[in-house]
Amino acid sequence: MANPHLTEAEKNMQKTVEVVRKEFASLRAGRATPALLDKVMVNYYGTPTPVNQLATVSVPEARLLVIQPWDKSVLPEIERAILKSDLGITPSSDGSVIRLAIPQLTQERRAELVKVIKKKAEEGRVAIRNIRRDVNDAVKQQQKNGEISEDELRRHQDEIQKLTDKYIKEIDQLVSNKEQEIMQI
């Protein structure tokens, strides 16, 4: 019989890994990807709106993003939002589309990005360990209340540890992949 705490823990750990994956996708690695614009919010008639809800974002070549707004009047606002964002990319517009040329990363910037990646990964690992701690506490409480035996407690703790190891390994794999992507010249 699966413990409901274990099921909940696995769901939360999967969500944590997904959050880390999204964080990594929004980091610039020297190649163009629409995910770079995920955190850029445009002031659209007074409402902060993501770029991908106002325009088509395409990647015609490895180092170029093209943003084509559905409503041409929002073009200056999109440009302003990109300039204000922490992307460090200057948009160029021809009145109907915005082009973002992704510059080559310097070695210094690559090292900074690797630090950011490791920091975000560690936050993910800590979140997973916190989930493990909470579930272990809940299972210990069940044992204290006489709902499960000591053997079941140990078995549940082993399963929780296996889940924790699995998801931390997944985060480590994400870090390794992203680091290789950034260090590629």
TrEMBL record:
UniProt superkingdom: Bacteria
One Pfam entry name: RRF
Record-level GO BP terms: translational termination
GO CC annotations, alphabetized: cytoplasm
Stretches of the chain forming a coiled coil according to its record: 139-173
Family matches, as CDD domains: RRF
Gene3D superfamilies referenced in this protein's UniProt entry, alphabetically: 3.30.1360.40, Ribosome-recycling factor
Keyword line: Coiled coil, Cytoplasm, Protein biosynthesis
Subcellular location: Cytoplasm
SUPFAM superfamilies: Ribosome recycling factor, RRF
One term of GO molecular function: ribosomal large subunit binding
HAMAP family: RRF (MF_00040)
NCBIfam families: frr (TIGR00496)
Function, as annotated: Responsible for the release of ribosomes from messenger RNA at the termination of protein biosynthesis. May increase the efficiency of translation by recycling ribosomes from one round of translation to another.
Recorded family membership: Belongs to the RRF family.
PANTHER family per UniProt: MITOCHONDRIAL RIBOSOME RECYCLING FACTOR PSEUDO 1, RIBOSOME RECYCLING FACTOR
Protein name in UniProt: Ribosome-recycling factor
Organism classification: Bacteria, Bacillati, Bacillota, Clostridia, Eubacteriales
